[in-house]
Amino acid sequence: MKAVILVGGEGTRLRPLTCTTPKPMLPLVNIPFIEYIIRLLKEHDICDIILSVGYISDIFESCFNDGGHLGVKLTYVVEDKLLGTCGAVKNVESLLGGETFIVFNGDILTNLNIGQLLEYHRAKKAAVTITLTPVEDPTIYGLVPLDNSGRVLEFLEKPSWDEVTTDLINAGTYVIEPEVLRYVPGGENYSFERGLFPALLENRERVFGFHSSAYWLDIGTPEKYLLAHKDILEGKVSLEFIAQEIMSADKQAKSRVWVGKRAKISPEGTIFGPTVIGENAVIESHATIFSHTTIGNNCRISSGTVLEGCVLLDGCRIGEGSVVKNSILGRGLKLGKKVHVEEMVVLGDNMKVGDENHLKRGMKVWPDTEIEKGKIRF
Ligand code: GDD
Ligand code: MG
Description:
With 378 residues, the chain is of the alpha/beta class. It contains 6 helices and 34 strands. Magnesium ion binds next to loops.
């Protein structure tokens, strides 16, 4: 069986991080996010994977090549102009070999049991099976009401609250029979959500919903991206990441502090788990790192710094006495001394923030911006 992963979107809600990196390539606990999906497919013996790329397309192939090191075969298909979620699949139809296939949105963190999903699809003799998950706010997803047999009654993308009749939404993973692609116009922008699914329902095709209770998260906003890190660090979703857990000071308990190769941590630094420190990172004396922090590879955290619940991408430099909480810092970013970054701030790659600035309240600053000393205060 082949799989298509949709990774062409621009990831606008995760700007400025996605100004320079497509959402599926953003690191999640220091591994490109999409690698978790590839590994999940591999675990279920789905090794022939097509990546439908568009926005900043080259980066995927230069990172994963043919996929051999992950035990899979990757094929890249580039869209010069975005074709929409379903148009992207129509575009790779000739590579699917006329067999049942699986589609994954490229921003879903899950440990879905794909075996059970396929079994359900076959048992229902479905033309399409849509994986469903319950959420608190269905209005930001695709709402999928079912009848008692699991058949989809309606598909309402981004419904208003008065349309909400269930908490089950489209979890972004589909099993599809190849014949249904005859409904899809070629070479046009066309989506599953507003195009194919409504068309199939109108034509009384067998569309079923598979209610999954697996862990599920769409990582597409800063809040969710931080939550994904937290959940992985807390073991809520059993996914492996590359770092070694160090022993706690009393050598009795697990520290839940995972440290990458060649990282140097001052004995005078204090670290509370769960926390991950990337390869070659340096933590200087009297730095305090509170729980739910992920420090990327090659970062340098200076003395007297406080970090908590934040994500630092690779190559960040944090100046003395700075504080970073509940925020995301892009690659190669330099913070001066006594800078405060708090309350869901997102800073783009290669920014330089001069000493004594205070960045707060959801500020987003684009890559390469330089902020002079003491310019921003709250
Ligand atoms: N190749 C390609 N071409 N990929 C695309 C395109 C395109 O034109 N447009 C979007 N994608 C990819 C994105 O990169 C992403 O991985 C995936 O398709 C879904 O796009 P999002 O932009 O993240 O959609 P969403 O989160 O608002 O809504 C979708 O996902 C929800 C679940 O997270 C819908 O499928 C909803 O119905 C669903 O509930
Ligand atoms: Mg999404």
